[in-house]
Amino acid sequence: MFWVWVVPGSSRTEVAGLHGDALRVRLSSPPERGRANTQLVGVLAQLLGTRVELVGGTRSRRKRVCVSGMSAAAVWATLAQNVT
């Protein structure tokens, strides 16, 4: 599990580095009716190629994400390759 800091309503969707101890992700979806949460899970699942679940922070910019089937080191290595 790891923390994600979400910036919804951005002009583009991208992994944008770190925000404190959290991965910073910009999302084009607005923070309405769970759209940004759905996009976040989809983007991370596509990048990592595995199941991703939002386990905390559904109504906050700071979210807790659980990744199945990968070690923490593999998750961070994959995400680091996709930082813009």
Fold blueprint:
Layout: E1 2-7, E2 14-19, E3 22-26, H1 35-48, E4 52-56, E5 62-67, H2 72-81
Parallel strand pairs: 1-3
Antiparallel strand pairs: 1-5, 2-3, 4-5
Q: In a nutshell, what does this entry contain?
A:
By secondary structure, the chain is an alpha+beta fold.
Structural description of this entry:
The mean pLDDT is 95. β2 and β3 form a beta hairpin. Strands 2-3-1-5-4 form a five-stranded mixed β-sheet, with helices on one face. It has one domain: Conserved Hypothetical Protein Mth637, Chain: A. The protein has two helices and five strands. The protein has 84 residues and is α+β, with helices and mostly antiparallel strands.
Output the keywords.
Conserved Hypothetical Protein Mth637, Chain: A, 84 residues, globular, 29% helix, alpha+beta, 5-stranded mixed beta sheet, 33% strand
